[in-house]
Design a protein that fits this description.
The chain has 8 helices and 7 strands; from the N terminus they run E-H-E-H-H-E-H-H-E-H-H-E-E-E-H. The chain is α/β, with parallel strands linked by helices. The strands form 2 sheets. Strands 2-1-3-4-5 form a 5-stranded parallel β-sheet, sandwiched between helices. Helix 1 crosses helix 8 (168-181). The protein is globular and about 40 Å long.
């Protein structure tokens, strides 16, 4: 199902980014072509070299310094992708996309992509429960964005609650479902 499929994997800045490396590896092993886009804050949690080694492709970081697409990464990457996945999708990323902000490559891709978008939120349980975050999630759902719900469990902040990013296998299952229906 994944062989030859072209996926765009976004990584925003949260501790759950370490799980995204595992997801990336699983997607590549399943035969997908994976291009990774990282936010500046994501690189504080995990290095681009990890994703370059896993995908055999350059990691895309900057809106105005193209690596592959000289008309702009936000155009070339979006046109090539069959699915845009963002894991972790932080509260900041959810707010930016829900409100149409395009201040970095990853948020701009959400506006230029015509393929389905799948978000895997991850954040502190108190953040996840905030009305503002839930309004942003609902706005994104209303716009047709798909979600892999965060789980409940131990969070890196030492609390237990909802907000833990879904496990890579669960996100992969959601990717397969979306690819078979679109």
């Amino acid at each position: 199902m994944m062989r030859g499929r072209e996926l765009l994997l976004g990584v925003s800045g949260g501790i759950a980014a370490y799980k995204t490396a595992d997801l990336c590896s699983k997607l590549v092993q399943a035969g997908a072509g994976v291009s990774v886009v990282m936010t500046e804050s994501a690189e504080r949690f995990i290095g681009a070299t990890t994703f370059e080694a896993l995908t055999g492709r350059p990691v895309h970081r900057e809106l105005f310094r193209p690596v592959e697409h000289f008309r702009g990464e936000h155009i070339g990457l979006a046109q090539r992708a069959e699915l845009l996945i963002v894991a972790p999708a932080t509260a900041n990323y959810l707010a930016a996309v829900a409100n149409g902000f395009a201040d970095d490559l990853l948020s701009t891709l959400a506006l230029t992509a015509t393929c389905p978008i799948l978000l895997a939120p991850a954040m502190n349980c108190e953040m996840w429960a905030k009305p503002a975050v839930q309004r942003n999630v609902q706005r994104l759902r209303d716009d047709g964005v798909q979600f892999v719900e965060p789980g409940t469990g131990w969070l890196s902040c030492g609390q237990v609650g909802a907000g833990r990013m879904a496990e890579p296998a669960e996100i992969q299952e959601a990717i397969v479902r979306l690819l078979t229906t679109h």
